[in-house]
């Protein structure tokens, strides 16, 4: 009756015993261990045994490293990777939040700038409207000047009999021309110069009024002839007063527009300072990101160091495995010597018993 073939259980048991002794299971070693079985049957069962082993066991078997040390190193490595990934994710989330906040702040600042520019445009439109009103008033002033010239012509006709007062009338005419020159100078000067010229104009108007009063006192004897002249002078004074009121209104409007422009400029300065502040904050965030990148580089360096340490441990484990092989060989030699000593002792004992 033929003997049945070698079973998988027998091959598995023999392979585990060979692995426990620090050797790699092969067909020859298993056959020597079992002392039976064909190479094909043992090879088939050995391949199945190897496929059932997990990667750690295969690595431990191949590199001859204890499985506990491989598991410990694997857990340490996974822990380091998990901590690094957690830290990187937190850094990314914080950076994303900071960037989103900065984007919202920049958007708000842009909206505020747009509103400020609209306010500036409105102020410019108001200034243009005031400029147009000023041009209209200048046209009125020119028209009044032409009317004054006509009045002066009529006054010259009426004052033909007042030859002794002609010099003063000429002086009054020169003062009117000086007033017109001051008004022309007012159009080209700044706000402070306009105020000064307005004061000068008022003084000259007062001087003109006093002069007219003097003329009125001196010409009491000629009231009938100078009535028309006095009426014309009163009309001139009323026209000058209306012009003065309009100029004061224009000056007040210009001052209010200047104040609004000053406020707008101050707001622009504040917005600029705010933009610079957020720009500095963004630079700080960028610097923080660079520091986080340096931390990532440090982590990668630590990872490289751990890899080097792992390689060193593997080398030390290989050396330890080699030392184990040497110790196993020494143990085998000691076993051989022990067996020889037992054989010799047995022979001596048997010889002693026979004797």
Q: Can you give me a brief rundown of this structure?
A:
This protein has 355 residues and is mainly alpha-helical. It has helices at residues 8-20, 27-34, 39-52, 55-63, 67-158, 166-188, 191-218, 223-354. It has a domain at 1-52.
SSE diagram, text form:
Elements: H1 8-20, H2 27-34, H3 39-52, H4 55-63, H5 67-158, H6 166-188, H7 191-218, H8 223-354
Task: Identify the notable features of this structure and list them briefly.
single chain; mainly alpha; 90% helix; 355 residues
General description of the model:
By secondary structure, the protein is an all-alpha fold. It has a domain at 1-52. 90% of the residues lie in helices and 0% in strands. It contains 8 helices and no strands. Helix 1 (8-20) packs across helix 2 (27-34), helix 5 runs antiparallel to helix 6 (166-188) and helix 7 packs antiparallel against helix 8 (223-354). It starts with 7 loop residues before the first helix and ends with a helix.
Any idea what the radius of gyration is?
58 Å
How confident overall, as mean pLDDT? Answer: 80
Helix content: over 70%
Number of helices: 8
N/C terminus separation: 49 Å
User: What is the approximate shape?
Assistant: rod-shaped
Beta strand count: 0
